[in-house]
Amino acid sequence: MLFDFPDFDHHELVLFGRDADSGLSAIIAVHSTALGPACGGCRMWPYASEADAVKDVLRLSRGMSYKNAMAGLPLGGGKSVIIGDSRKDKSEALFRAFGRVVESLGGRYIAAEDVGISVADVMQMGQTTRHVAGLSSGHDASGDPSPFTAYGVYLGIKAAVRHKLGSDSLKGVRVAVQGLGNVGSNLLRRLAEEGAVLTVADIHADAVQRAVDQFGATAVAADRIHAAEVDVYAPCALGAVLNPVSLGELKAKVVAGGANNQLATAEIGEALRQAGILYAPDYVINGGGIINVSAEVTQSYDKDDVLRQVERIPVTLTEIFRRADRDNRPTSDVADEMAREILTAAKQGKDAKRVAA
Ligand code: NAD
Q1: Between the CA of residue 249 and those of 216, 224, 228, 229, 246, what are the distances in Å?
Q2: Which residue segment(s) compose the domain that 48 sits in?
Q3: In this structure, what CATH number is given to the domain that contains residue 43?
Q4: What is the pTM of this model?
Q5: d(CA 273, CA 293)
Q6: How many Å lie between the centroid of ligand 1 and the Cα of residue 83?
Q7: Pocket lining: 222 vs ligand 1, CB cutoff 6 Å
Q8: Number of compact structural domains in the chain
Q9: Which atom of ligand 1 is nearest to the CA of 290?
Q10: What is the chain's mean pLDDT, rounded?
Q11: Average pLDDT over every residue of 338-355
Q12: Is residue 185 part of a domain?
């Protein structure tokens, strides 16, 4: 029963979409529209079970509510997953079918890129729905959000290093980047430019080889990167990488990366604090991409303005770090509390307006 899923958090809507002709199996979750239409990426992944896909979309959509709230965007939280292998199962028919499912929600959910989904895929979804963003052409098209996500993550790593290690520069700072896809590869370039010492891992050997060749990175096994002898661990692949097993093996003093849902459970936030590890809450540090997408959704795309908003991310993070230090609380709890306050105020404001109308 969906309501019994531990990750079910009073989501407003969960929609299951199937299309026999194209082989589409998808789920859309809208967590909250208190701040505006729900907006969040679509992920394509070969989930081991439908239950895993449901769990992922529930967690990811709630994370989007918090992310959009903390980035100050007029967007609610939603996310979608397509069950399938992005290297084998993509087709135009599949994305057109997915677009029709999105369209059926009449704008309550707006889809964009996430793991396994490219700008070209979103363009194909756009053939059957208006409710997509992160497009490469058209009015206010914002394109690939990943470079903006990576820029925010880079600035967030600098803020965390400054707070925890007292250094203003990343020169010589050892950073382990897990996942060398759209976000990870853009992040690597920025870290390399500043002289960080890089360790990398990916499940695809070609991505690792590129990082070694281009940036002189040291490659380690994908299942050992969390344990690398580094100052900063930057998860940029999938979620739940901070769990009781990995926690015991972490050497880094800072965890700051682009992946969503890095904490396997909320309790890991406290365990990190007790271990003296500074954690940059994922949905705050990785908000750059949705800030870029938001400018397209609100039809006000201005790259300089987007960059200025992304540059607020380290300011918000530093505020979270300070509050966490002051109150001896995990950074993840402090961020959750700040996000919930914004969402509650928005919901109450909307309710009050409805009653007055
Ligand atoms: P992507 O699909 O381009 O890249 C993900 C990479 O991780 C791939 O290269 C994949 O091979 C690798 N990977 C998967 N499992 C791995 C493992 N166990 N160990 C090492 N590598 C592994 O996706 P992306 O767009 O770069 O997103 C990466 C993360 O950042 C995701 O968690 C995503 O939700 C999050 N995120 C992305 C954006 C964005 O703008 N793209 C925005 C916010 C958050």
Answers
A1: 25, 9, 9, 10, 5
A2: 11-61+76-125
A3: 3.40.50.10860
A4: 0.95
A5: 33
A6: 16
A7: yes
A8: 2
A9: 42
A10: 96
A11: 88
A12: yes
Provide the percentage of residues in the chain whose pLDDT is more than 70.
100
Using a 10 angstrom Cβ sphere, with 0-12 exposed, 13-18 middle and 19 or more buried, the burial of residue 29 is buried
My answer on whether 150 and 120 are in the same domain is: no
Contact partners, residue 211, CB within 8 Å, separation at least 6? 177, 180, 185, 188, 198, 200, 202, 217, 219
In contact, 330 and 268? CB cutoff 8 Å:
no
Q: Which two tokens stand for residue 105?
A: 């929600």
Q: Report yes or no on 176 lying in a domain.
A: yes
Residue 354 domain flag: no
Determine which helix (DSSP H) or strand (DSSP E) holds 270, and give its type and residue range. Answer: helix 267-274
- What is the domain-level CATH number for residue 151? 3.40.50.720
Q: Is the pLDDT of residue 184 over 80?
A: yes
Determine contact, residues 107/297, Cβ cutoff 8 Å: no
* pLDDT digits 0-9 by tens, 124-151: 999 999 999 998 988 889 999 999 999 9
Catalytic annotation, residues = 79
- 77 DSSP β-pair partners: 32, 39
Cβ–ligand 1 contact at 221 (below 6 Å): no
Ligand 1 test: best mutation among 114, 154, 292, most atoms within 8 Å of CB?
A: 114
Residues 124, 98: contact at Cβ < 8 Å?
A: no
> Is position 296 within any domain?
no
What average pLDDT does range 20-25 have in this prediction?
97
Check whether residue 96 and residue 189 sit in a common domain.
no
Give the tokens for residue 150. Answer: 């990576």
